[in-house]
Design brief:
The protein has about 375 residues and is mostly beta strands. Helices cover about 10% and strands about 40% of the residues. Strand 18 and strand 19 form a beta hairpin. It starts with 13 loop residues before the first helix and ends with a strand.
Amino acid sequence: MHSQSFTPSTPLPFPLLRVAVALLCLAAAAGVARAQTTTSTLNGDIIDANGAVIQGVEVTARHLDTGLSRTTTSDAEGHYVFPGLPLGPFEVRAAKAGFKQYVYERINLTVGETAALDITMEVAGPEQEQLTVTADAALVNTQTPELSYLVGERAIEQLPLNGRNYTDLALLQPGVIAYPHRDGGSVVAHGVGASINGQDPRSNVYLIDGTPQNDFTNGPAGSAAGTVLGIEAIREFRVETNAYSAEYGRNSGGQINAVSKSGTNNFHGSLYEFHRNDNFDARNFFDGAQKPEFRRNQFGGSIGGPIKQDQLFFFGAFEALRENLGRTVSTVVPDLASRSGPVHPAIRPFLDEFPLPNGRNLGSGLAAYSFGFDQTISQNFIQG
């Protein structure tokens, strides 16, 4: 966050000065809040075996994937805090003369999380000693009041998704239901809507790395294909459903806060293709004698790694969707009887534009007509 100062050429009236100060404070708070949406916070209290707080303990948090290291010192109340940490696994070390060095080997921080890790230090003996905790504890949020649910890396990688739309995983969380109210023929392109805690689907916010993805009608992120590609580039996302903090104040509904993957000190990647067709599909009730053609291919890959160890990293992902979907449409046209008899010459050209019916007679001069057509989709997604 940058700070700026200025000197007005003429003194500001006191009310205007108060407004200026308030705006600067709001801007600073907005900058901090924006940073918090894509990061995590780690804090805790440090005590001895008798429960007394320990001041002046040097605490170091080191990111195991990138080597990033942050150091702070416990205050007079034995409290330490690391704001704005990147996501992922951390090693935490605490050290002070006269005490055993404390090492928590692995704690995994997730998006939008405020994690608490309390440390109990023991008095050291004559030799240099170290207390090591190896468990990767499942931490309970005791720091903030919001109700939220994390969709982590394992769920994104292993749960089957027809169409590979990562926002569908939000529908597995309590209080979130699908709301497919959108007009498929609209000029607006969007994904499947969701009602969170009973609110209007347009009340939600979709964020990727802190940037809103809603369309101009405030609908969910999506493409002309009605899906959101790029699941291979998503690390995790959190569904904030209730009592979330002010940084999510754009809309009153749920907040779907996704964070993309990044490179690490090790090369990692993926390569995949998913294929579906109509070979094992049954004929639709409205289809004719011949089953419509259906083919879908989704393919792509990702790669990430170090450019300079512990300092500079890269990550990129590509995904493509190719689909040919045969569809049968049933509609209504004038029946054969309505075409015969006295028809005014001015009406005949318009009547002839309707195709002849190929289904049952519906009465009142109408009959059923069905036709098939191919709906094709070709879509590419790239992120780096």
